[in-house]
From TrEMBL:
Residues 1-19 form the signal peptide. This is Nucleoside-diphosphate-sugar epimerase. It comes from Amaricoccus macauensis. Keywords: NAD, Signal. Gene3D superfamilies: NAD(P)-binding Rossmann-like Domain.
Length: 281
């Protein structure tokens, strides 16, 4: 029996986590790197050279599902810009667009759900809002996934603590929402099994928390000294890192639990960091 085909337009960290769950699918993923292509083959994913636009068009036309994880740039969404004609001719059953909770902007630490107004505070958020609208306008069965801060093996505060680069930055009232990459993949898989075109989903865990608390807990897990508190104003953050601190909000995940039936394996950062450590991360 022929397996259905899913194409990951941008086969990065999140897409790879979903691919690992899709044993019943034939997974293709775009990449610019031959070294990355070799890693993908080893994981059972067929690489498609992003530089070969015709090959990407063919993959789009053959796919029953598309996952879009490439970010928009100053000129808009790169997939819509380069493959709009192929997309309009395609007939997938499901399209997942990976967006960000940054589309909601700053909520001064308050809660926000998918009915909240889109009021991004910065240029990256504004690009995401425009990209979401662009994908919705295609008429394809698009599902928007607004992702909180993603972490997991190889990409967590534990790595920064081991490297000695973790800072326990403190700013009064600042909270962030997060999601373990395994729970993100589980949410995408649940949507694949239960399509609802046009729906938006916040993908976040149950417990938004100050970043300093996460650093302190991670240090305790590793048996390392807790880094001293550093006021935000003197932390020396890069412009990109500092832009994240311009927003403080608590992101509700009720919709993925109630509509997709998702049960988070890592409902908070404590469970998530323990899972990362158990996985060798």
């Amino acid at each position: 029996m022929t397996r259905p085909l899913i194409l990951m337009l941008g086969h990065g960290y999140s897409a790879a986590a979903l691919a690992a769950r899709l044993a019943d699918w034939h997974v293709l993923g775009t990449t610019r790197s031959e070294a990355r292509a070799e890693d993908m083959r080893a994981a059972g994913v067929e690489p498609v050279d992003w530089a070969d636009a015709a090959a990407v068009d063919r993959a789009i036309g053959a796919a029953r599902a598309l996952l879009v994880s490439l970010p928009p740039d100053a000129e808009g969404d790169p997939v819509l810009r380069r493959h709009g004609e192929a997309l309009l001719a395609a007939r997938p059953d499901w399209v997942g667009y990976l967006s960000t909770t940054g589309v909601y902007g700053d909520r001064a630490g308050g809660w926000v759900d998918e009915t909240g107004a889109l009021a991004p505070a910065g240029e990256r958020g504004r690009r995401r809002v425009a990209a979401e609208a662009g994908w919705a306008a295609t008429g394809l069965p698009v599902h928007h996934f607004r992702l909180a801060g993603i972490y997991g093996p190889g990409r967590s505060v534990l790595d920064k603590l081991r490297a000695g680069t973790a800072q326990r930055v403190v700013r009064e009232g600042q909270v962030f929402s997060r999601i373990h990459v395994g729970d993100l993949a589980a949410t995408l898989a649940a949507s694949l099994a239960r399509p609802a075109p046009g729906r938006a989903y916040n993908v976040a865990d149950d417990e938004p928390a100050p970043p300093g608390d996460v650093v302190a807990f991670g240090a305790g897990l590793l048996g390392l000294p807790v880094p001293p508190e550093v006021p935000f104003e003197s932390a020396g953050l890069s412009p990109m890192a500092a832009s994240f601190w311009a927003e403080s909000k608590r992101v509700s995940n009720r919709r993925i639990r109630e509509e997709l039936g998702v049960t988070l394996a890592c409902p908070d950062y404590r469970a998530g960091l323990r899972a990362v450590l158990a996985a060798g991360g």
